[in-house]
Amino acid sequence: MKTLAHPRDREELLHRLQGLRPDNLRRWGRMSTHQMVCHLSDAFRVALGELPASRRINLVTRTVVKWFALGPLPWPPGVPTRPEIDQVRGAGTKPAAFAADVARVEALLERFATHPNLDREPHPLFGAMSQSDWLRWGYLHVDHHLRQFSA
Length: 151
Fold this sequence. Notes:
Elements: H1 7-18, H2 33-47, H3 59-69, H4 98-113, H5 131-148
């Protein structure tokens, strides 16, 4: 399974991020391409403990949902997000300059992928996560949103 633990998988995502254009059309959802880039940055900042996010952890989300979410299948469209990183209806970071925002998410992806202690932060839905869980989540989250914009 692909994960940010593998340099080749990171390079794949970085290459796809570099191919994004502000006018990419979305296949689902409400975010623009630029909003999605900011959403990815916010999500990495939550995972790194730099941005607080509300939690909705329960028995189902920390077991069944987590098991499916970190499994071999790509995420389906329409999965809701936490309000703190919702760029359309919530408090997510507002887009500024597209190239700078893409560079920011690329830097965050690299920092996240090489962070030695990701397991210190709980996921807002899944709760406790191992280092490998977080690295799998990171790959899947970025891949999900790049597929949203055919990138």
